Structures are given as C-alpha cells and as structure tokens.
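sry for the spam today, last one i promise. struct tokens for design, 219 residues
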C-alpha cells in the first residue's frame, strides 16, 4: 500500500485489508454484502461509508453500477501509461495475447505485443495480459476496454474468474464445475451462462488462466 494508508483508522485499515485479501484469493473484489457479513455490519450504508472514505483518500476506486466495484488502487487498477506499483517493485513486461470476450466468445487473437504490469500483482507462475471486449462482466467491475492480468493455469476453484477457450474462442467468466458439467457465468443479468453439459462439449473446453489483476485506462 502507499503512504495514504498511514492516515487510516484501525477499522478502515481492516476493511481495506479484507478487500485486498479477498481479491487476492478470489480474483475479484468482495460485494458490499460480503463486506458487511464479514464485519457484522447491520447496514450496507455502513459499508458504503467506509468505501467512500477510502475512495476520497485515493486508496480505493469504485466502479459505478458494479456490485463488486471496490478495487484497491495500488493492487488492481492503474493506467498503462502510469502504472501503479508497490514501492520499489517496478513493472514487468508481459505478453499481450490479444482480446478476450466479456460477452459471447470471440476468436483468440495473438498480438505479439507486451504490456507493463506492476510486479506486485505477480506472485509466482507465468502470467499474460488480455484486453477485454464486451460488457458481460460489468457487475464484477470488468469493463469493455480493460486489460486483465491472468495467471496461467489449467484448473480453477468454483467462483473464480477465468479466461477459457471454448473450441478456439476465448471468453472471461466466473467458473463453476459440477461433475462433468461446466458453467461459465457472466456478471451481467443481460447475458446468459454458457453451459457445457455433454462429454463432447467438455472436451472442447480449456481453462487458460485465472484473473489476478485489472488495469484500466483513465483517459
């Protein structure tokens, strides 16, 4: 965290730490209800008060109309031209592998470019970056034009946000598996889940990686 965190009250620091640790574990930010449940707050207004105060101090950025729109600025959201980094950590150039659909799957495209990412996001393993197109994940704070940082792996826990290939088409969704049934859920009620039930469909499905960070152009 940056020097602004030294001005937080103990409870504000606890809320910020919870948002950070939840995001690290799940790949997306906690909802206001999840924050309220964790701390035993009886009102979402109390949660909103903490989020507003953290936002005013420049530590947190909220995405409008997103249930999971609270993002720790120094860990999750930055501008590619001026990336937010942990002190002394610098940035790491990662391969920009093209676009991923937050909507209907699109054909995977290789760009051959690189993209500078805060080193604080990378904690072991191989990573890559994709540019998001579409609006199916807006309630998780993933917007059209965002860049997602993905940790390359072929397995995921239920509820994690993954980049998956369905055939030769790439998409970003919340992942759920029950036996041989795979479900890829959007975070936008205007979109339907993608269901893979048959053995043939399952063979065409592959997890490419799990979401670990989000970078947004602020211009």
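last one done:
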């Amino acid at each position: 965290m940056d020097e602004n965190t030294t001005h937080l009250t103990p409870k504000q620091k606890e809320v910020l730490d919870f948002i950070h640790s939840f995001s690290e574990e799940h790949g997306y930010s906690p909802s206001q209800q999840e924050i309220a449940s964790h701390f035993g707050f009886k009102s979402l207004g109390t949660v909103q008060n903490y989020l507003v105060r953290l936002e005013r101090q420049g530590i947190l950025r909220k995405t409008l109309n997103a249930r999971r729109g609270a993002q720790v600025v120094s860990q999750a959201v930055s501008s590619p031209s001026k990336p937010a980094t942990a002190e002394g950590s610098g940035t790491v150039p990662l391969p920009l592998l093209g676009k991923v659909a937050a909507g209907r799957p699109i054909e995977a495209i290789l760009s051959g470019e690189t993209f500078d990412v805060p080193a604080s996001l990378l904690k072991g393993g191989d990573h890559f970056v994709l540019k998001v197109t579409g609006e199916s994940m807006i309630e998780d704070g993933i917007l059209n034009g965002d860049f997602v940082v993905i940790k390359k792996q072929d397995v995921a826990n239920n509820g994690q946000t993954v980049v998956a290939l369905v055939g030769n088409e790439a998409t970003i969704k919340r992942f759920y598996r029950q036996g041989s049934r795979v479900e890829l859920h959007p975070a936008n009620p205007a979109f339907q889940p993608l269901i893979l039930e048959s053995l043939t469909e399952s063979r065409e499905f592959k997890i490419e990686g799990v979401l670990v960070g989000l970078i947004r152009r602020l211009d």
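The longest strand covers residues 91-101. ok im logging off now
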